[in-house]
Amino acid sequence: MIFLIGLVYFVVIAFCIAFTIFLCMVPGIIAKSRGITDSERTTIIVLAWCGLLTMFITWWIALVLALVWQPKTWVNKEKPKVDNVSDLDDLQKLHKLYKSGALTQKEYENLKKDILKDM
User: Fold this and answer.
1) How much of the chain is in helix, strand and coil states, percent to nearest 5?
2) What residues have CB less than 8 Å from 58, skipping those under 6 apart?
3) For residue 63, with 0-12 CB atoms within 10 Å meaning exposed, 13-18 middle and 19 or more buried, which class applies?
4) Who has greater pLDDT, 2 or 27?
5) 74-81: which pairs have CB atoms within 8 A and are 24 or more residues apart?
6) Cβ neighbours of residue 71 under 8 Å, at least 6 residues apart?
7) Which of 40, 54, 72, 98 could form a disulfide linkage to 108, CB 3.0–4.6 angstroms apart?
8) Which residues cross the membrane (predicted)?
């Protein structure tokens, strides 16, 4: 009988520890899913784990930060145009044509303006 009581006590304690560890990981998981990276996420994780020492006060702060904090770089942010290199090549070719006399200054300025507008 004492063995059974000890086993139940052990299972309850193990469950409480596992649940506490899971709760401490929740703000970090939320921060990661929102695209928060590096030092911002580290701050949230440290605050969440410090919640064990502060009766979960800093855990609530970490949870709010994970839900509200705006990441420096968004995961879905539009990437820069890749063909800027070809635009620069076009500008160089245009300049060579202008220097060789194949284009007038007005034609050169208009074509240059069109290329720069597309960048």
Assistant:
1) 75, 0, 25
2) 47, 48, 50, 51
3) buried
4) 27
5) 74/35, 75/35, 76/35, 81/119
6) 34, 35, 36, 37, 40
7) 98
8) 7-31, 43-69
Amino acid at 39: S
Amino acid at 15: F
Question: Which tens digit of pLDDT belongs to each residue from 3-22?
Answer: 888 899 999 999 999 999 99
Q: Name the one residue in this structure whose structure tokens are 């701050």.
A: 43
Give the chain's radius of gyration (CA, Å).
30
Residue 39 tokens, joined: 């030092």
Residue 13: partners with Cβ closer than 8 Å, 6 or more residues away: none
For residue range 49-102, what is the model confidence (pLDDT) as tens digits?
999 888 889 999 999 999 998 876 555 555 555 556 677 888 888 888 889 888
